């Protein structure tokens, strides 16, 4: 009982402090006594430190606004005209990939010394959102490249690996995250791909087949997870940086998908692929930890993608159409039935957007206590995107059901939001576990 | 007279400079974004919470200046903007595209003709140009807010420099420039044998580059000097009074006529379009 009360008290103190700047300092002395009860599990928030900015979450910095504007210019002028063709063809145009590198969208958080832009995680999510508002397939490539593989390399890669790969990832090499297999989706640790160490330990031989691997057709390098000793269970899982040109590595035929059709999703077959020990990311046997940790933040990027989809539907397609389309002598956006619907959707979109950027800020300031929020945001943003896309088609009527407009593409694209990078059921599980842990006696 | 002073100033400033590499100054105006639908309120355009951005013709001027620099024809490119505090973003965009440094003439007076008008802007620019010792001034042909197209020619007049407007192509050689200019009756090729000169840029001159993310961040480190407009000792009051600002009447529906005779009849007698 006592624990319950203090947890609530601390949570509300934190909230209040974040909102009432100067006055918050007055709370710091009282909160420090409450903090004694903190088991230290989920918050590094130091109440005695100057509270963070009191600005609204939606007020971004000048840098972030400039970045958003620059991406929007490019995506509306260069990407939008070919979105439909890329979806029909089921692949990305090479000039788009080149533009992504040239514009600096591919090395966003990489330090300047390696050719990156040294931007914040929030900026990277803004870029993903803006691109997604035009084409979620291109956005997912940018998201996986930046938030999964590049960040994993930055956090756990040796200096040599970083030196070798980061400059290339910033300028000309696409990367891919090879985790899933036929028998290992949500149960990622059930993977069967093995990495047998050589007798002297100087290299590993990887055998297995990865499935559902995004970016695999374009990738020059994979962050690949394999087990160096299956008898150890998940504690044998190790992360490897594998050159796509490695002998024995084959990227299979892309899946024909419902949505995100321009994003390549292929099997990756490894037949006695030799990988030097120096290409192990971090420590042997810690791969399971790295993959969980990196997916925790990667999913905020996916939430940004889903927000982009929702905005692309509501703001760019639905709202203009509702003012223009006339039936029964008036714009259909004037009918109360419609108004109530788009008001509801706009409200949910707003909430999802705030959650996403709040999670970004949490991750930037505090490396441990954003996991629950990241799961919540991915869960919710995917749901909001699906509702928004679905409603948009309804509001558009007959034309929404045709390929004349991009609404039907967004509808198909958004469905995977509740599936990849952690299914919605897994998110719910994660949220429940973390929430429950705060209350367990 | 003006010409000699500016060129001497330039030589005194940097005697080791290559004789052929010129100092370029580009005007960058902060205007209502081209995609925004403006509203008229209180006999003026309502600018509250409106999205503002770099004037598209100024963007073309910046691109041309940066290309001159990349071709080593230009030595240094300075971006100049007149307007409120937020012009720093406009200058930063120009810096991100490749300009070397910026000058912000700060004023809260409206630059869309309501308060500051082309003559005053030209006078402000004249001060900066003389101070900088610029040899080539590139401006957009007009601001998309006021659509005057006057600042370039007025500046050239004040400086006593040759001017070429509506440039569709520009090449530099032997201390001078050759400019193709587009007019309604065709394209003219104008040779300016010796700089300095003022050139205003038109749509077909080039396609501006996108500011890349790394360059946007690097632009923060480039130098921007801020001068208060009032400190330049000029009378900035408008020469012309704006009497009224109104939205154009909504387009009336067209009518379909049955034959050529009724078309001619309507054109002559109703529209007054033919005598």
From TrEMBL, chain A:
Write down the top EC class of this protein. oxidoreductase
| Gene Ontology terms: cellular component | mitochondrial matrix
Q: In which pathway does it act?
A: Amino-acid degradation; L-isoleucine degradation; Lipid metabolism; mitochondrial fatty acid beta-oxidation
Q: Which Gene3D superfamilies match?
A: Acyl-CoA dehydrogenase/oxidase, N-terminal domain (1.10.540.10), Butyryl-CoA Dehydrogenase, subunit A, domain 2 (2.40.110.10), Butyryl-CoA Dehydrogenase, subunit A, domain 3 (1.20.140.10)
Location of this chain's protein in the cell: Mitochondrion matrix
**Is Oxidoreductase set as a keyword in this record?**
yes
**Record's keyword annotation contains Ubl conjugation:** no
UniProt organism field: Cyclophora tenuis (Marine diatom)
User: Which family does the record assign?
Assistant: Belongs to the acyl-CoA dehydrogenase family.
* One Gene Ontology MF term: short-chain 2-methyl fatty acyl-CoA dehydrogenase activity
Question: Domain Acyl-CoA dehydrogenase/oxidase C-terminal, which positions?
Answer: 285-433
Record protein name field: Short/branched chain specific acyl-CoA dehydrogenase, mitochondrial
Read off the lineage from the record: Eukaryota, Sar, Stramenopiles, Ochrophyta, Bacillariophyta
> What EC number(s) does its UniProt record assign?
1.3.8.5
**Which keywords label this protein?**
Acetylation, FAD, Fatty acid metabolism, Flavoprotein, Lipid metabolism, Mitochondrion, Oxidoreductase, Phosphoprotein, Transit peptide
Q: Which PANTHER family match?
A: ACYL-COA DEHYDROGENASE, SHORT_BRANCHED CHAIN SPECIFIC ACYL-COA DEHYDROGENASE, MITOCHONDRIAL
UniProtKB/TrEMBL annotation, chain B:
Biological process GO terms, please?
A: amino acid catabolic process; fatty acid beta-oxidation using acyl-CoA dehydrogenase
- InterPro entries (UniProt xref): ETF_a/b_N, ETF_b, ETF_beta_N, Rossmann-like_a/b/a_fold
GO MF annotations, alphabetized? electron transfer activity
Keywords, comma-separated and alphabetical: Electron transport, Mitochondrion, Transport
Q: Which CDD domains match?
A: ETF_beta
Q: Which domain of life is it from?
A: Eukaryota
GO CC aspect terms: mitochondrial matrix
- Tell where it localizes: Mitochondrion matrix
Which Gene3D superfamilies does this one have?
A: HUPs
For whether the record's keyword set contains Transmembrane helix, the answer is no
Q: What is its main location?
A: mitochondrion
Domain Electron transfer flavoprotein alpha/beta-subunit N-terminal, chain residue ranges per copy: 42-236
Is Transport given among the entry's keywords? yes
**Where does the sequence pass through the membrane?**
none
Quaternary structure (record): Heterodimer of an alpha and a beta subunit.
Q: Which family does it belong to?
A: Belongs to the ETF beta-subunit/FixA family.
Role this protein plays: The electron transfer flavoprotein serves as a specific electron acceptor for several dehydrogenases, including five acyl-CoA dehydrogenases, glutaryl-CoA and sarcosine dehydrogenase. It transfers the electrons to the main mitochondrial respiratory chain via ETF-ubiquinone oxidoreductase (ETF dehydrogenase).
Instruction: Name the chain's protein.
Output: Electron transfer flavoprotein subunit beta
Its organism's taxonomic lineage begins at: Eukaryota, Sar, Stramenopiles, Ochrophyta, Bacillariophyta
């Amino acid at each position: 009982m006592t624990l319950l009360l203090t947890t609530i008290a601390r949570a509300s103190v934190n909230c209040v402090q974040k909102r009432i700047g100067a006055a918050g300092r007055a709370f710091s002395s009282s909160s420090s006594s409450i903090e004694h009860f903190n088991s230290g599990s989920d918050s590094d928030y130091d109440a005695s430190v100057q509270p963070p900015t009191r600005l609204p979450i939606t007020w971004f910095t000048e840098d972030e606004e400039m970045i958003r504007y620059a991406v929007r210019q490019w995506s509306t002028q260069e990407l939008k005209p070919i979105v439909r063709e890329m979806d029909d063809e089921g692949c990305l145009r090479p000039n788009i990939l080149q533009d992504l590198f040239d514009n600096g969208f591919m090395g966003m958080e990489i330090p300047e010394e390696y050719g990156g832009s040294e931007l914040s995680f929030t900026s990277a999510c803004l870029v993903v959102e803006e691109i997604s508002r035009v084409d979620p397939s291109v956005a997912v490539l940018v998201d996986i490249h930046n938030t999964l593989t590049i960040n994993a390399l930055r956090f756990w890669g040796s200096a040599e690996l970083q030196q070798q790969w980061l400059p290339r990832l910033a300028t000309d090499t696409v990367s891919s995250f090879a985790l899933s297999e036929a028998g290992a989706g949500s149960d990622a640790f059930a993977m069967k791909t093995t990495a047998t160490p050589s007798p002297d330990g100087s290299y590993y031989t990887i055998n297995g087949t990865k499935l559902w691997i995004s970016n695999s057709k374009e990738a020059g390098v994979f962050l690949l997870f394999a087990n160096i000793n299956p008898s150890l269970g998940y504690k044998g899982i190790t992360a490897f940086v594998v050159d796509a040109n490695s002998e024995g590595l084959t990227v299979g035929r892309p899946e024909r998908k419902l949505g995100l059709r321009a994003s390549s999703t292929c099997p990756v077959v490894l037949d006695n692929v030799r990988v030097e020990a120096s290409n192990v990311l971090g420590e042997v046997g810690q791969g399971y930890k790295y993959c969980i940790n990196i997916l925790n933040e990667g999913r905020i990027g996916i939430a940004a993608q889903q927000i982009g989809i929702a905005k692309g539907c509501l703001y760019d397609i639905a709202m203009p159409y509702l003012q223009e389309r006339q039936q029964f002598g008036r714009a259909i956006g004037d009918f109360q039935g419609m108004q109530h619907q788009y008001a509801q959707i706009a409200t949910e979109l707003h909430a999802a957007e705030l959650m996403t950027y709040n999670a970004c800020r949490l991750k930037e300031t505090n490396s441990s206590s954003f996991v629950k929020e990241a799961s919540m945001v991915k869960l919710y943003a995917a749901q909001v995107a699906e509702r928004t896309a679905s409603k948009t088609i309804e509001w558009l009527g007959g034309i929404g059901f045709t390929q004349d407009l991009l609404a039907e593409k967004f509808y198909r694209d958004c469905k995977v939001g509740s599936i990849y990078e952690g299914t919605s059921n897994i998110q719910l599980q994660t949220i429940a576990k973390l929430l429950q842990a705060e209350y367990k006696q | 007279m003006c010409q000699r002073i500016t060129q001497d100033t330039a030589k005194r400033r940097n005697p080791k400079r290559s004789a052929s590499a010129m100092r370029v100054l580009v005007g960058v105006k902060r205007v209502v974004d081209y995609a925004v639908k403006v509203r008229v309120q209180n006999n003026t355009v309502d600018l509250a919470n409106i999205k503002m951005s770099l004037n598209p013709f100024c963007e073309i001027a910046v691109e041309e200046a940066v290309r001159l620099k990349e071709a080593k024809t230009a030595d240094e490119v300075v971006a100049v903007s007149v307007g409120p505090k937020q012009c720093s973003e406009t200058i930063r965009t120009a810096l991100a595209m490749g300009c070397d440094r910026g000058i912000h003439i700060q004023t809260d007076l409206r630059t869309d003709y309501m308060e500051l008008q082309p003559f005053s802007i030209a006078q402000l620019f004249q001060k900066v140009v003389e101070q900088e010792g610029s040899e080539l001034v590139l401006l957009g042909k007009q601001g998309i807010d006021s659509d005057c197209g006057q600042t370039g020619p007025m500046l050239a007049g004040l400086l006593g420099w040759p001017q070429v407007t509506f440039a569709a192509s520009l090449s530099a050689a032997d201390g001078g420039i050759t400019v193709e200019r587009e007019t309604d009756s065709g394209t003219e090729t104008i040779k300016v044998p010796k700089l300095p000169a003022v050139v205003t840029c038109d749509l077909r001159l080039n396609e501006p580059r996108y500011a890349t993310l790394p360059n946007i961040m690097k632009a923060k480190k480039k130098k921007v000097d801020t001068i208060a407009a009032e400190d330049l000792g000029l009378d900035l009051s408008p020469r012309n009074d704006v009497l009224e600002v109104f939205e154009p009447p909504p387009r009336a529906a067209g009518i379909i006529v049955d034959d050529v005779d009724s078309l001619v009849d309507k054109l002559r007698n109703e529209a007054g379009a033919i005598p």
